[in-house]
Each structure stands twice: as structure tokens, then as C-alpha cells.
Amino acid sequence: MGNKSSPKTRPPWLLLAPMYAFTILFVALPILYMFLLSFLTRAEVWGVEFQFTLANYKRILEPLYLDTFLESFRLALISTALVALIGYPYGYFMAKMSPAWKKRMLLLIMIPFWTSALIRLYGWIIVFRSNGVLDSLLMGLHITGEPLKLLYTYPAVVVGMVYALLPFMILAVYSSAEKMDWSLVEAARDLGASSRLAFWTVTFKMTLPGLLSGVVLTFIPSMGLFFIADLLGGNKIVLVGSVIQEQLTKGRNQPFAAALSAVLMVLTVLMIRLYRRITGASKLEGLV
Amino acid sequence: MRKTQWKKWGSLALSLLLLASLAAGCGGDAKPSGELSLYTWDGMFPQEILDGFEEETGIRVRYSNFDYDEDMLAKLEETEGKDYDLVIADDYIIELVIAEGLAQKLDTSKMENYKNLNPVFMSQFYDPNNEYTVPHGAGIPLLVYDPALTDVEITGYEDLWNPALADNIALTANYRVINGIALKVMGESYNTEDLDVLQAAGEKLLELAPNVRVINDSNTQDFIISGEAAVGFLYTSQVYLAMTARPDLKLVLPKEGLGFGIMASFLPSQAPNPDAAYAFLDYINRPENAAKCFEFLGYYCTNKAAESHISEDMKELLVLPEDAAAGEIVQNISQEAEDLHSEIWNQFRDACG
Amino acid sequence: MKTKKWPFAYVGIITAITYIPILLTVVYSFNASKISSVWGGFSLEWYRELFRDRDLGEALVNSLILAFLSCLSAAVVGTTGALGMYRWKSRLNDAVAMVSMLPIMIPEIILGMVFLSVFSLMNLPFGMLTLVIAHTAFCIPYVYSMVSTRLVGMDKSLEEAALDLGASPFRVFWDVTFPTILPGILSGVMLAFAMSFDDVVISIFVTGSKVNTLPVKIYTKLKTGVTPEVNALAAVMLAVTIALIAASAAVGNWTNRSERRQIKSQEKENV
After folding, report:
1. Residues with Cβ within 8 Å of residue B295, at least 6 apart in sequence
2. Longest CA–CA separation in chain C, Å
3. CB contact under 8 A, C109 and A20
4. Residue B284 in contact with residue B265, Cβ under 8 Å?
5. Touching check for B212 and chain A: CB below 8 Å?
6. H or E element: which one contains B328?
7. A102 in contact with B at a CB cutoff of 8 Å?
8. Looking at the predicted structure, is the pLDDT value of residue A197 above 50?
9. Interface residue of C189, C224, C242, C263 to substitute, partner B, most B CBs within 10 Å
10. What is the pLDDT of residues C217-265, one digit of tens each?
11. Which residues are within 8 A (CB) of C31 and not within 5 positions of it... i.e. 6 or more apart?
12. Which end of chain B has a smaller Cβ tally under 10 Å, C or N?
């Protein structure tokens, strides 16, 4: 008995060391540097002067930037919700397929994502543009009479976001549904539960870690994917990501860009914490 | 079962690696006698010129890219001007590069073809005594419109505000230039640092929002060519592409005045192989080579001797009439004014959506 | 077990939709027009252009090497990390796990900028090394979270039973734990590969004068415009990917068969 529990109480340093070392050296350090930057003053031409200031954070409180944050969150929430709605059943059904089909589907999902994102977005532009594929289809079926201006609208941006983020959700849900013990569902059914009740009490609960990890992996990047909004939305939706980009390039204002990033990061972490609290997923360990 | 799956993935990875090493082997067979690290946007030179230079000099061109001028500045600052031999970038950023001491003085005696350059594009604000730079192309943003899609006759920036153009204008995304439209309509300079004037320009610009269909920096010409928008405010290379694709489009030199910009090359302060940079500059400024470069690039030719080598049908678009060079260059302005520009721009974008 | 048809239909339709833009990309790579969204007739011009461009091939190789190396290191670090944290729970672990997720929580551009500054403070030479470090940083979260998802709720009693039966810890890992987490590692690596192979913003900042990656080349045509040459490139990459998968499937089938034969002959001997 004693020798069985001892390897668990002693930390497995050999396994932990690479993760600890890498995280501290190449993640924590750069991010600390980012926080430091956000309290400094920008230099005349390029770089920063080591002069402490809170001005960068004060500037974020201007209505223009607050609106930008709200807009970014709105788009991220809409996209994440849609991705979950579409991706969860996909991942779940995939887990029920035969092993051969599982492998095939896995590859089928990933292949498009091994080509350039920019090129895929151009593909969507071909679909949405005036007299494009979708317009021709709708007019051919006599659903619409004239070309719709679909490109550079909000729905076009949402389609682009959902498309870019879907595989994250599918793979996460699949990953947790695939190892599920289906006999539990059968047991519930044997005990007289309806298939719906069995799903909610057993399956959903057991695949929740996957859904959660999918939401995290979708929500986080969706805060930064401004180039989709730029290309499919015609630059007409201002997101935090593009303001940061602009401040770093044209504005040459590293400290303000760092402050925006810091706020974005903290808000994202808080959102994820909140989500965990609401879904009760805090009981599940191993995930952020 | 698991083992075979593992094997499958292993074999996939192995074949990938094999392919990579195979291709790497193919790429590395040339034996160069030196290297030139060229740092600029992608697609600045036709392959023919790069190949011709390598063949003639035996110097291997390492072509690496940035997308924004400011990324280039950041890289030079962090590497202290050590990594690259030759950089081509925009005028305003070169002023900063020189101010930061990241460019080296040129030895023009090393370039036989230096005399071919057009003096109209030299001695500019960023390098008044031509100590550091060699111009490589000039641009003027212009209006292009499709007369089949609109009855409005456009002669200047002011016409863009016409309500008949609702949801029909495509703009590039450089905010100094776009905010500049409003400034020009008000009769002001691009480079004004008067915050009240800028504020007024911002309000004027907001009124333009309902007419904007799309804001996009790359391939803006496509919107006009494909009929997605009736009017476009385009960069020079885009004007060139639009007009060559659809000669029926109308080109407008806005009556309120022209903007103007120059790209130029310079040697970073600690360039590892400056002789390669000189050799390259000399090669691309040979009249017939320069003509090829500008026909490919679609910017106004900055090489006087090359003008006679440019094919007749392209001359109109590549050789700048002397009087047009009087356009105003967008220069660096105070931080407060720059910040206000950025805020005006984001408000404007938001209003367009 | 009864199987319904409609789940397959659902999966099929969604998958088909994800292929629409890819298909159009391939179709438009044969577009004679220089404008990426208008059809101007059939042409192979862009393929000719593509194979003339020497830099592009070099950039493709760099991108493959970079994606391979960063996925490999992310797989090792992410998997060992997830396992270690699963075996030994502590608040410190939670904190490290949280921090390790941050590279995908902040916009790429600021990450690229701070990497540039921090690497130059550390005196690392800009090039493949800095690229691999930066890419590994944003690849780890994918592997780590996918593996953790597999580990959560894994039947611990299996591991314990195996240990009780006298199996060595290494054996237990190889026969019990590893098969459980393998699908997680694979899906994490697949996502990480896609992210690394497509990254522009961070790469622009941390690359050196000698190493250009493919996405950087595609995205930095800002001054000159993107032509259907990139469509042709995407089509070629797609073809190569599919060919590789087909090849590895063929190899897999072949090894499967020979293994089965081996097992059969062993069985005969046993009889």
C-alpha cells in the first residue's frame, strides 16, 4: 500500500521540468515584459522611455476604446456560441463512428486547415461577392431577384469566424466523447431513463470537459482574429486586435498597445473563470 | 492495433521529413561567392532581375520580407542594423531610420548608374542632401471610377460625399492618407498639427461613412475591376493594375491637390556586405533593368535614363509628368496629432459598419 | 446496436461546407484573370509562375521544417507537462498551466513584438531557433489542453490494477496511459501544425535575414498585390497533403497485412 501512494505524493519532476522551464523562460518572461511596457512612456521615434505612467490605461477608458472592447466581445461570444452549436454534435457523432471513419473524418476536417488562412478567406470572398457563387445560386433558384450585397456585412464576418474556429471545437468534443464509456448510457437507459434524459445526465456531463476546452480554444483566438473582420467585413468593424496592430505599426506606440493587450488578456482570463463557475466545470481539473 | 496506428503516423511524419530534406537539397546546390540580404515587401522585383543579378555577379540574393514599414524599423532597432545589407521602404520611415542612426552614408562612386536617377525624386525631406538613400519608385494615390456604375462625374475628393454614391466607394486603409481626403477638401495640409483642424476634418470624414462599401489595403483595385464598388481611392500600383485590366475606367487627378510618396533604398548602419548592396543598386539602375523593374512594379519610374526604355503603352502610367510631382508628401507629425489621426480613423471605420 | 442515418448526414453536410472555399480556391488557380475573385477563363499561367519562383520553394521547406520542429517540441513539452500535472496536483501547477495558455490569449502582434525584444535581450540569433521557440510557445496550449481533456476522468483504477499486478511503471505507461492519451496528442499536434504552418504575424517579428517562411511571403505582397499564384500554391499544397496521406495509408495497410500474417503464423505455431 505504502509504496503505491508514494510516487503520487512526490512531484514527478522529470515530467514537469520541460513544461515549467519553457513556460517560465519563454512565456512568463515575455508577458511580464509586456506588463512592464504597459506602464512606460513611449519614446519620440521608436521604443520606450523608462518613465512610469498610468496614462496608457487611462486612455483605454475613453468611450472609443471601451466600445471597441464591447464590439470584440460581442463578436467572440456570437462566434463561440455558434461554433459550439455546430461543433458539439459534429464531434459527438464522430465519436460514435467506426474507427476507420473516425480517422478519415479527422483528416477531412484538418486538411483545409493545412493550407493558408488568407487563401481560404479569398475562397469565401468568391462565395459572397456581388454576382458571386451564392448570389448566382439564389438568383438561379429564383429566391432573390437581384444581387445581394453580402460581402462586407456582419453575417459574412460571423461565417468567416465560425469557419476558422470550428475544428478547435470539433476536435475537443471528439477527444472527450471518444473515450466515454457508452455502457453508462446503456445502463441509464436500462434503468428506464429516456434517451434525452440519458443524454443530459450522462453523455453531456461526461463530454463537458471537451466542450469546455473547445469553448476556451474558440473564444480566445476569436478575440484576436481581426483579419477576418478586416477581409470579410471590409475593415468596417473595429476590433481590439486591429487597434493593437495599428498602435504597434502606424502609431509606433508600444506602451499603449501593451496596455490594450494586458486588459484584453485579463478580461479573457476572467471570462473563462466565469464560464467555469457557471457551468460548474470547476470540479473538472486539468483545464484552464 | 494501437501500434499500427502509431506506425502510420510515424510513416507520415517520416515521408514529410524526407520530402523536406529532398527539397532543401535541391535548393542549396548553387555555389554563391557572396550573399546579399535584401529586406523589403514581397514582389518588389521580377524574378528575371534577381536571376540576372545572381548570374552576372555570383552574389546570392536572400530576399526577406516585412509587411509594415514599422516592423522593419523594429527589426533594425533590435538587431542594431546588423542583419541586412539593403532595405527598401517608404519615405517617412526612412527619416526615422536616419534619425536613429540606423542607416549608413552612401559612397555613390561605387555606383556607375547613380547618374541615371531622376533629380525630381531626390533631395526630399527625409534625406535633403542625398547622403543615405537611392529612390526606388514614387506613388500618388488617385481616384478611379467606373462610369457604367455611376452617373456622378468625379473631378475631386469633394464628389465622394455625393449621396448618389451610397455604399459604393472602396478605400485603402492608410489613415493619414484617408483622413487627408477630408483635410484636402477643407484646403488644409496633410501634415497639419493643429488639433482643432484635425477634429473638424474628423467630423467631415464621418459624413463620408454611408458611402463607404469597403476599406482594404491590399488588392483594392479588385473591387473596382469586379464592379463591387463604383469608385476607388487607390495606390499607384493599384491604379496601374486597374487601368491595365479595364481601360474603360476613368482616372481622376483630384482637383484639391495630390498626395505623393517615394520609396527609397538604404544600407543599414552595420550591413554585413555593403559591396553586394552597391552592386545590386547599380544593377537595378541600369536603364534597361530599371525599366523592367518599374513595368513589373507599377510605381512611377524614378530613373530618368530608364524612361525611354519603358514600352509606349505603359509610359502614361509609369512616367510622371513634371508638374504632377508638386504633390504634398505625408510626413511625420507630432505624437498628439498622430494619436488624434488614429482616433478619427477608428471612429470613421466604426461609423462605416 | 441500431444506427441512425441523420447524424452521418449532418457530419457530411458540415464537412462539405468546409470544403467549398477550398474547392473554389483550386478552381480559381486556373483563372486567367489576375484578379483573385473574378473568373477570366482557363489558364495554367499561375502554375508556370509558381514553379519559376525559387524563393517560394525555399520558403515552403522552411515552413515545413519549422512546423515539424515546433510540433515535435510542443508534443514533448505539452504531453509530459499534462502527465506530470495529472500525477501531482498542486496550486503551482494550476498557475503554470494558466500561464502556458497565455500565448494564445493575447493578440499575436504584441506577442511577436515582446518576443523580438526578449530574444534580443537574451542575445539569441534571429532565425530558425527563435522561430521554433516562438512557435513552440503557441503550439503547447493545443497539445496540453487536448491531452488534459483525455486524462480528466481517465479510469485511474486501470493504472493501479496494472501496478498491482506487478507491471513496471514504464509498462503501465506504455500499455495503459499512452494509448488513452494518444488521440489527444494527435489532435493537439494537428491543430498546432495548422497554426504554425499558417503563422505570419509572430514569424515576421522573430525571423532573421536568412529564413523566410511561406505565409510571410504570401502576406507581405502588400505593395504589389496578391495574385492567383497563391491559389496555385494552395492547390499544390493540397495535392501534396492528399498524396502523402494516401501514401502513408498504403504503407499502413501494407504493414497491417504483414503484421496480421505474422500473428497468424504465430498462432499456428502455438497450436
Report:
1. B310, B311, B314, B318
2. 74
3. no
4. no
5. yes
6. strand B328-329
7. no
8. yes
9. C224
10. 887 776 667 778 888 888 888 888 888 888 877 776 776 666 666 666 6
11. C38, C39, C40, C41, C42, C43, C46, C228, C231
12. N
Residues contacting residue B113 through CB under 8 Å, at least 6 positions apart:
B282, B285, B286, B287, B305
Domain B142-257+329-352 belongs in CATH node 3.40.190.10: yes
Q: Do domains B32-139+261-320 and B142-257+329-352 have the same CATH topology?
A: yes
Q: The domain B32-139+261-320 is classified under which CATH number: 3.40.1030.10, 3.40.630.10, 3.40.190.10, 3.30.450.20?
A: 3.40.190.10
Do B336 and A251 form a contact (C-beta atoms < 8 A)? no
The C-alpha of A99 sits at a distance from chain C's nearest C-alpha, in angstroms, of 12
Give the range of the structural domain holding residue A144, as residue numbers without chain letter.
64-283
Q: Does the distance separating the beta carbons of B343 and A247 come in below 8 Å?
A: no
DSSP character at residue B268? B
Predicted confidence (pLDDT) per residue in B129-159, tens digit: 999 999 999 999 999 999 999 999 999 999 9
CA distances from A279 to A275, B56, C58, C113 (A): 6, 68, 48, 36
Cβ–Cβ contact C74 with A under 8 A? no
- Under an 8 A CB cutoff, do C57 and B23 touch? yes
B28 contact partners, CB below 8 Å, separation of at least 6: none
pLDDT of B28 above 90: no
Q: What is the pLDDT of residues B186-196, one digit of tens each?
A: 999 999 999 99
In a domain, A26, yes or no: no
Give CA–CA dist C187/B333, Å, rounded. Answer: 50
Number of CB atoms found within 10 A of residue C257's CB: 10
> Which three cell numbers, joined as nine digits, stand for C50?
509558381
Residue C151 in contact with residue C86, Cβ under 8 Å? yes
Q: Which residue of A has its CA nearest to B334?
A: A44
Domain count across chain A = 1
Strand partners, B37: B62
User: Which CATH number fits the domain that encloses residue A232?
Assistant: 1.10.3720.10
Other C-beta atoms within 10 Å of C1: how many?
A: 5
* A16 touches C at CB < 8 Å: yes
Binned at pLDDT 50, 70 and 90, residue B12 comes out as: low
Closest residue in A to C118 (Cα) is A30
Alpha carbon distance C252, A228 (integer Å) = 38
- Any domain includes A59: no
Beta-strand relationship, B259-266 and B328-329: parallel
* CA B21/CA B15 separation, integer angstroms: 10
Given the DSSP bridges, would you call strands B86-90 and B259-266 parallel, antiparallel or unpaired? Answer: antiparallel
Give chain C positions within 8 Å (CB) of A36.
none
Cβ-defined contact of C76 to A18 (cutoff 8 Å): yes
Residue in the structure block whose three cell numbers are 510618396:
B261
Please give the Cα distance from B311 to B318 (Å, whole number).
10
Read off the DSSP letter of residue B148.
Answer: T
Is A49 a domain residue?
A: no
Residue A127 has pLDDT above 60, yes or no: yes
Task: Inform me whether the C-beta atom of residue C87 falls under 8 Å from chain A C-beta atoms.
Answer: yes
* Helix/strand/coil for C191: helix
Q: Hey, which residues does B268 pair with through a beta bridge?
A: B103
* Distance in Å, alpha carbon of A234 to nearest chain B alpha carbon: 4
